[in-house]
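Please, structure for the following, as tokens.
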Amino acid sequence: MGLGREQEVEIRDAPVFMPGERVRSLKHIRNDGTYRGREIGDILVRKGEVGYVRDIGTFLQQLYIYAGEWGDSATVVGMRGKELTSLDRLEAPAAMKETGQ
């Protein structure tokens, strides 16, 4: 009898993103029923949309949830770190890291 897959407890480490940081969505984010005033299934944030981290919270004492403010409508949507990438801290391409350039 397994307990399912174990998830990493993110909150043991520092958050990946900080409030005020400019981020881009890596996925379309749809309303799962928790966003009031919008229909279930409506797209709240489109893949590639740019926004800012407004706040950081936790979920189930394991995961960071980043409240992102998106677009001109100032829609605030909570997202996981794996659904975001920073535009303020651009990473060097993997090939440059490997060669030490």
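The chain is about 5% helix and 35% strand. Residues 55 and 72 are 18 Å apart (CA to CA).
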